[in-house]
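Sequence only, no structure available. Ideas?
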Amino acid sequence: MSEVVRDGRLLNGQQTRQRVLHAAIVCVVRDGYAAASTVRIAEAAGVSRGALMHHFQSREALVAAAVEHLAQRRGAELARRGQDLPTGPGRVAAALDLLWDSFSGDLFKATVELWTAARTDPGLRARVDEAERRIGRGQIELFGELLGPDNTRRPDFEERVQFAVGAMRGLAVLDSFHIDPQARARQWDFHRSQLVEMFTSNTDGADR
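Reply:
I predicted one. C-alpha cells follow.
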C-alpha cells in the first residue's frame, strides 16, 4: 500500500509505517498518551488516518510497537557505540555510562508514559507487557555484549542485569521531575560505583 503524504511524495508501506512509528513517539512524549489519538498521530506523520489504521489496528498496538521499534533502534546504536569502549578495568564503568544514556531520551519518556497509562487500561497493559518482555531480552543481550564474557558466564547474570536496569530506571524517573543536573550527576556517580562493584567482583562466574 502506497500513501501520498502532505509534501506530495509517494511513500511505500514500510516508509509509511516508519513515519507513523516515529510520530507516535513524538506525540506520546509531547502530549501524553491520553492526548495521543490516532488522528493526532496521523497528522504528525503527515499521512491519512486510514493509512495508519492499515498498519495498526488500534492505538494500543501502535504505541507499544513504536516503543519497541525505538528500543531496537536505540539498542543497535548503543551496540555500535560499544565497539569503541575501552578494554581492561575501565570497560565496565564506560559501558554503564553508555547504557545510562539510554535512560535520558524519548524512549524512556515514552515508556514511563505508557507504564502510567497501562495501570488502568487492561488493553494497553497487555500490549506493553508483551513489548516489555521482548525489550527485556534485548537489554540482557546488549548488557552482555557491552560488559563482556566475564559477566555473561555468571550463573546470575540476568538477575544482575535486571537489578542494574531497575536502578537506572529509578534514577531516571527522578530525573523526569527535573531534579538539579548536578545532583543527578552525583547520584549516577554513586549508582555507577555500586554497579561497577557488582559487575567486577567475582568475575570467574562462581557463586560466593
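The chain has two domains: 1-56, 59-200.
Hope that gets you unstuck.
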